[in-house]
């Protein structure tokens, strides 16, 4: 007999089906939990599913199936409901048996083999290394980290990856910004700092490091720097033309810096990249988010994959030339317009390197590829999937999970998060303010593509309204009970669970039994928030039980049974919080 109630019920239904309709004995059987507890513990819609092919009324077919169900000590009763559902009510012993499984399996409870050890690549965060991670990046980090753990629990062989955009214009702007701050620190009458460059204090910090290590290495005549540069518009202007003029001046300054610094430009560029990437890696590690691979965009150019990828698209007829540039026929794959992959000056676009990056992912042999992108990248999906199809690859291997940025609030104040302007709240600052546990939990408390308001005051409060505190408090309460009990936890598997008879205890046991299904559903839907929701409900039910019943009663058998129930609650909370990257303190 299967230990999993759903599997066991499916076996019973299959046996009944072989008797009632042998020709349909291979039909798919779906066992689900009803939304209302009054409808039983599990429900099956097989009678409605087969009614047409068998030519029977669904309710009559359901009754026939029930009459042919083999006896099972796990089933208290079964009944026909609605249009033809078969509802199952489990026996108390069946509901309580899960407690023994939890105590025996420990940290392994909730894991499955659904993924079959197939290889999946999850790429997330991948923020430009042009400044500290801000609170918006934090949500993608928390979501991606939890998703990797979820998929691992569901039996997938998971590789986590950060794509380092180290070959594009933004890194050039950061290198230029640092150089100009270096000149500014060296000479009071230096070149005016461009309004479109990176403004943050971290840029000055890097410039100070450079100046201390190399006082004159990067100095150049000021006249040579500013001579002949395009003029800037009025600072008060905010229209598109003015914005373009500012960007044009920035590009001219980058070109001038590369010319004047020569080989030193690469040294400067590598310095700022190394500094910011190290800071990013350290911040993520301190947040409990770890990456197996840090993949360099520049490596795609170094091995010639970008050029080969573009030529492959060209030979297969998916490119055309217009105004000197090479365009990908993205509209043929559902995109709103065609996209440039190589500019008229010969430089490849970011889209070209992104196509090559995805080709590389496929060539590494992953059976499933998941990209975690910001919600503002929604329009980018059709062109990437189109390019994958154009390369002759299966686009269904790629899945994209969209994450809305979080908005930070404190007493109604809303923080801005622009990296170039320097006006943003860093992820590190947020963690120092509310703690790592609150950060990780609050970030996954909503579906990833839904807007998230991060309430700092709530995250710091020690109240029942703070979900992470409420769940951790349930875990700590059980630890306190076990300490007072003083027995050996390993012996709880032998407890007489039949002594647990109260509605609170049976409901709590049923809730614990849902955990493996919650994990499996959350993994299949790429939805860690389902685990967070479950843990909130589990904690609420335990607190209600704790307040309604004494656990350490005088009756030894009843006491041990109740301690076993509490210990199972602790284990499941620990397992669920581990998926979300949140700690479980033993005292609070």
From TrEMBL:
GO molecular function annotations of the record: arginine-tRNA ligase activity; ATP binding
Q: Which residues form the Arginyl tRNA synthetase N-terminal domain?
A: 7-90
**SMART domains of this UniProt entry?**
Arg_tRNA_synt_N, DALR_1
- Which UniProt keywords are given for this protein, alphabetically ordered? Aminoacyl-tRNA synthetase, ATP-binding, Cytoplasm, Ligase, Nucleotide-binding, Protein biosynthesis
**Name of one Pfam family that matches:** Arg_tRNA_synt_N
Reactions catalysed, semicolon-separated, are: tRNA(Arg) + L-arginine + ATP = L-arginyl-tRNA(Arg) + AMP + diphosphate
Among the record's GO biological process terms, what is one?
Answer: arginyl-tRNA aminoacylation
Look up the EC number in the record and give it.
Answer: 6.1.1.19
Sequence intervals crossing the membrane: none
Location(s) in or outside the cell: Cytoplasm
Gene3D superfamilies for the chain = Arginyl tRNA synthetase N-terminal domain, HUPs, Isoleucyl-tRNA Synthetase, Domain 1
Keyword hit for Ligase: yes
Keyword Aminoacyl-tRNA synthetase on this protein? yes
| GO cellular component terms, semicolon-separated | cytoplasm
**Motif 'HIGH' region in this chain: where?**
127-137
Tell me which residues make up the DALR anticodon binding domain.
471-588
Question: Hey, which family's this protein in?
Answer: Belongs to the class-I aminoacyl-tRNA synthetase family.
Summarize subunit and interaction data from the UniProt record for this chain: Monomer.
What HAMAP family does the annotation carry? Arg_tRNA_synth (MF_00123)
What is the protein name for this chain? Arginine--tRNA ligase
Protein species of origin:
Candidatus Accumulibacter phosphatis
Tell me the gene name.
Answer: argS
